[in-house]
Amino acid sequence: MRVQLALTCLVDGLRGSTGVSMVRVLEHVGCEVVFDKRQTCCGQPAFNAGDWTSSGRVASAFVDCFDRDLPIVVPSGSCAAMMREGFRMLGLGAGLRVFELAQFLMNEVGVEKWRPVSRSRMVVLHSGCHGRMLGSMDSLERLLALVPNLTVVTPETSEQCCGFGGTFSMSHPSTSKGIGIEKLYRLKATGASEVVSTDWGCLLHLEGLARREGIGLKFNHVADVLAEAFE
Amino acid sequence: MPGPRLAQAQVADHWALFRERLSEVGGEVADFSAVADCPGLFWIQEGLKGFWPGLDLAADPWEAMTGVCRADMAVAETGSVLFASGPDQPRLLSLLPPRHVVLLDPKQIEPNLEAALARLDRRNWAIVTGPSRTADIEGILVRGVHGPRELIVVPFPV
Amino acid sequence: MRSDFDKRAERLPLKVVDSVRTASANKVQGRFQAIASVFAEYDSARRQAAATKEYVLDNLADLLVELEASCLKNGVQVHWAEDAEQANRLILGIVSRAAPSALVVKGKSMATEEIGLNERLIQEGHQVVETDLGEFVVQLDDDVPSHIVTPIIHKDRTDVKRTFESHGLSPRSDEPEELAAVARARLREEFRRADVGISGVNFAVASSGRLVIVENEGNNRLSTTAPRVHIAVMGLEKVLPCDTDLALFLRLLAASSTGQRLTVYTHLVCGPRRPDEPDGPEEVHLVLLDNGRSKILNGALREILKCLRCGACLNVCPVYRQASGHTYRHTYSGPLGAVLAPGLDGVHSHGALAFASTLCGACQEVCPVDIPIPELLLKIRAEVGATPAAPWPVWAWFAQRSARWRMALKALPMVEPLARPWTEHREWPEPSGVDFRRWWDQRP
């Protein structure tokens, strides 16, 4: 199956390693990965901030980089949701077939097993909220449960958001922090020392807070965890 | 207002579910004889007073400790009893006294809300599902805020 | 730029945040259990309810005319109020006719909070007593509710005891049981003496004229039964077509709002006391309140008019839990309020609330009528526009071309000073050191 990789800004700018992991994971399940280097941002930041004109310009340039007939796989539930719901509201890109990675592997590829990862350990999941819009809240949990040497736990009140919310974390920094700290305590309370999620947005926010507050947790993207199997 | 005639087995099923759901919401079922043992002054619906000739009746309804009336209907699914306003059914009787005793003919129990609502006429109806409660303070359940603290259903006729 | 909302939220005492968070979490749990035990097929129940509400909005004018006719037939007097001022004047007229300086007892009603009815009645020489336990405390405090269902969610038992004591009520302890008993004793006399009872309306049935009021304490029923006059105040959108629609909505409301199978009291008001009846109000008035609703009906936020006021979206909202209701500075708080407040009063007065959301979607997930709240919030944001506006066109200029975008991403560490609101609370992320595009170009 040919799939198109949508890299996302955070991976493009800060977490290139996750892009590499995405390619390795997708190729491992038999996909041929297409990456159009013209792609930039999906337009979500301006869309959420209320500037739909700027967002629309960026989003339509983004849409032009993709083939409507091939599935698009994204290392972020929130960007995937933008490409589905946001583009619809902007009047663009109806018909794009967009999937967040865990959702794609579970529901489209139908992955049934995975190799052991480099180190046996317990990880705690943070299911990004945009899974709600994608109808894939449980795919991360089902996916990581396939990894033989991972013990997967979920925190209490797992339905609660981490407080990132993109531009919300800038316009409402103190509220965002309060929600994030509550989430960190719930994650920490599981006894796991590593948090795994589908979104670098949530993860960088939580990581930044944890480092500032001295809460000992590590943060990892699901693609990077899965790619450990091929090291 | 009699509903359609029900088979005995159906009546028994409705009663069993009603009883279970009533107890879930904090109501109780008691025998006819238990009424007379309630302490304090009574407010008894017209037409029922003859059953308990010796009881002390409150001159002022606001002073009554126990209200006794018939239910006009009930709902098994929710454990609710229904009252329709009328000449012998004061609306306040089911509300003012801290203990509310309800005589319920098991044949008057409808299986669910839909069936009960379909039978409502143009009177003022109240659907009462358990004793009065609040959880306004710290989410802690307290019974008997403004309405009755106890809701006791007596099958009648037995 | 940092919002005023965030500044207000930051000033909240930790104790308030704890109260709200704990109570909300319990309510989320209660709702979850109730829905599991009440509904065999919750999704289809929810779809059916949403479809009925859609029908109501499509036919609102006709249904209201039908409701008016049914009410008149039942002996209920119907009044139409275009805005808060008209509603207050109407109600004031009814109250003043009942008694020159009337004692008014009130059941919980968000519509009357919305129009500021209490202040108006008091100004004109009437006495108004809120009788719902939470609302009673709010009134003693000269406060406003912080939650549409649980008005004192921001307070704990010691706060309530202190409030009572400062008003000459002497609870023997701070046990909720004792506090409720004190309120009960105090309010009994008011119910008995009251001239007028005012309530809200949860549902009004067009075909039968039945006004449906739900509650748990019994104060609403006392307020609408004991006094000589009952005034019911209802937002236009609360109308339902038929009695047969009620069962579904009563179940959804009880389960979503308080985790019950059914609320303790469901009153189906079908008119004033008949000549042969021993009690009940001699007059029943229905005030149909528009106050911005017909404007919402014809605009982009129309779907918010499906709202049942169950409060489930507040309970589950991470921002509401952190900020509590008062931070929203409007009668309606939480996700619902963030849409309804700008809808009713205009985006220019409360549009900023739409930005007080992470858009996590939990609100829509728990909504019993599936209102797409995140989408409505986004529409409000688009109408208000970004603040500050300037960075976004610049951002768009860079992000429209990959070469420019690459430059901008390389410069990311340099924009750190612009990210002060972020770095004030968080460490700036360290790059992974891998450049994906270079790796992609170089792979064999």
Describe, in short, the structure shown.
With 231 residues, chain A is α/β, with parallel strands linked by helices. Chain A has helices at 9-13, 16-28, 44-49, 52-63, 77-90, 101-109, 131-134, 139-144, 168-171, 173-188, 200-213, 222-227, and strands at 2-5, 32-34, 72-74, 98-100, 121-126, 150-153, 194-197, 218-221.
- Largest sheet entry of chain B: 5 strands, parallel
User: How much strand content do the residues of chain B show?
Assistant: 25-35%
Report the sheet-strand fraction of chain A.
5-15%
Compute the average pLDDT of chain A: 95
Work out the count of structural domains of chain B: 1
The whole-angstrom Rg of chain A is 17 Å
CATH-level-2 architecture of chain B:
3-Layer(aba) Sandwich
Amino-to-carboxy terminus distance of chain A: 24 Å
The number of helical elements of chain A comes to 12
Question: Main β-sheet of chain A, in a few words?
Answer: 4 strands, parallel
Number of domains of chain A: 2
CATH structural fold name of the largest domain in chain A: Rossmann fold
| Quaternary structure | heterotrimer
Helix fraction bin of chain A: 40-55%
Strand tally of chain A, please? 8
Reading off the top of the CATH hierarchy, the class of the largest domain in chain A is best stated as Alpha Beta
Placed side by side, the strands forming the largest sheet of chain B appear as 1-11-6-3-2
Shape of chain A: globular
**How does the overall form of chain B come out from the CA principal axes?**
globular
List segments of chain A where confidence is low: pLDDT < 50 over at least 5 consecutive residues. none
Biggest interface: chains and residue counts? Answer: A-C, 69 and 71 residues
Characterization of this structure:
The complex is a heterotrimer of chains A (231), B (158) and C (444). Chain A is α/β, with parallel strands linked by helices. Chain A folds into 2 domains: 2-108; 112-230, Rossmann fold. Chain A has 12 helices and 8 strands. Chain A has a 4-stranded parallel beta sheet, with helices on both faces. A 4-stranded parallel beta sheet of chain A has the order 6-5-7-8. Chain A starts with a strand and ends with a helix. With 158 residues, chain B is of the alpha/beta class. Chain B has a single domain, classed as NagB/RpiA/CoA transferase-like (Rossmann fold, 3-Layer(aba) Sandwich), CATH 3.40.50. Chain B has helices spanning 8-24, 113-118; strands at 28-29, 42-44, 66-70, 73-75, 80-84, 99-104, 109-110, 125-128, 133-134, 142-143, 150-155. In chain B, a hairpin with a 7-residue loop joins strand 9 and strand 10 (142-143). The longest helix of chain B has 17 residues, at 8-24. Chain B is globular. Chain B starts with 7 loop residues before the first helix and ends with a strand. By secondary structure, chain C is an alpha/beta fold. Chain C has 3 domains: 4-12 and 295-384, Fumarate Reductase Iron-sulfur Protein, Chain B, domain 2 (Orthogonal Bundle), CATH 1.10.1060; 39-291, Rossmann fold, CATH 3.40.50.10420; 391-442, no CATH class. Chain C has 23 helices and 10 strands. Chain C has helices at residues 4-10, 14-38, 42-58, 60-74, 84-98, 110-115, 117-123, 133-141, 157-166, 176-193, 219-225, 246-258, 293-297, 312-316, 318-323, 334-345, 347-350, 362-366, 373-384, 391-399, 402-410, 420-423, 436-442; strands spanning 77-81, 103-106, 127-130, 196-199, 203-205, 211-215, 229-235, 239-240, 265-269, 283-289. In chain C, a hairpin with a 5-residue loop joins strand 5 (203-205) and strand 6 (211-215). The longest helix of chain C is centred in the N-terminal third of the chain and has 25 residues, at 14-38. Classes of the chains: A alpha/beta (231), B alpha/beta (158), C alpha/beta (444). Chains A and C meet through helix 1, helix 2, helix 3, helix 4 and helix 5 of A and helix 1, helix 2, helix 15, helix 18 and helix 19 of C. Strand 8 (125-128) of chain B pairs antiparallel with strand 9 (265-269) of chain C.
